[in-house]
Amino acid sequence: MSSVLLSVSNLSKSYGGRLAVDGVSFQVMAGQVVGLLGPNGAGKSTTVGMIAGLLRSDGGSVTLNGEPITPGNSAAKRKLGLVPQDLALYDDLSALENLKLFGALYGLAGAQLKQRCAEVLQQVRLSDRADDKPATFSGGMKRRLNIAAALLHRPALLILDEPTVGVDPQSRNAIFDTLEALKAQGMALIYTSHYMEEVERLADHIVIIDHGKVLADESPAGLYRRLPSQAALRAELAQAPAAALLQELARQPGVTSVRADGAALDIGLQETAGAPAVLAWLAAQAGAPLHFATNRASLEDIFLTLTGRTLRD
Ligand code: ADP
């Protein structure tokens, strides 16, 4: 069984009397990738700022390997790396010089600093740009340099706050490749995002927050099990079906809902694998559909089920 690396307990913080984070608790196990998912303003940045010891909480606690993390405990803070939303790079220093500066802040020097700079540049695939200034980099390359800076001191946990916002698709893929490689090496990650597909690609565990509160704290599979329909089947018939056929369709095994708009049917299914039997039944009753498509449910549907709103509201 894996051990608890980070424990976040009942964290809260208000800005000017307005609660931004309201009793947030969750854990990160060693080697686990946790996606912190929520719409803009949900409290993700405030939460990770407190976890990283940058922001003082109004209440609650954070421990890393059992040791409390607070703004005053710099030894504990050094066991994690934070890639903030706002980039912190010096435009008139080269990429390598930037890293040397960050490394010195972590107490690295000499041959060790040089070696770590080379290693982290390779990890983010910027070795060939080491001597170039960040001013010549795309937004995504700057972000990758910031990830490199956060890795220099070999943190046990890397926290990334919306690392793909404002990033070109090529760099986005490079960031994912880097994060997947870090995951494969056993590094624990916390990754905040309001993009479901990103969290889904990387996370072993998902914490959904909204209005500063945790709404769900589960594996992706566990989240999907909360949905009444795992999949949707859209079928267009040659003509609008009779009401009796729709009622009978709704009673077919594995069908969770039926909605008709003229000849177009939207059928909720317990699982995607149920689609062929439902299509065969439809074909026998009403003739072969002119067109059909299945869609697996997404984390977007889960957020909608939990809050009644879409993530992009
Ligand atoms: P997210 O990262 O999920 O977008 P944030 O943690 O940035 O959410 O913000 C949570 C809430 O706290 C929002 O309502 C935001 O407007 C507010 N907030 C964040 N930072 C500050 C600040 N420095 N001063 C005042 N309000 C803030």
TrEMBL record:
Keywords: ATP-binding, Cell membrane, Membrane, Nucleotide-binding. Residues 6-236 form the ABC transporter domain. SUPFAM superfamilies: P-loop containing nucleoside triphosphate hydrolases. InterPro entries: AAA+_ATPase, ABC_transporter-like_ATP-bd, ABC_transporter-like_CS, P-loop_NTPase. GO terms for molecular function: ATP binding; ATP hydrolysis activity. PROSITE patterns: ABC_TRANSPORTER_1, ABC_TRANSPORTER_2. Gene3D superfamilies: P-loop containing nucleotide triphosphate hydrolases. It comes from the Bacteria. Signal peptide: none annotated. This is ATP-binding cassette domain-containing protein. Pfam families: ABC_tran.
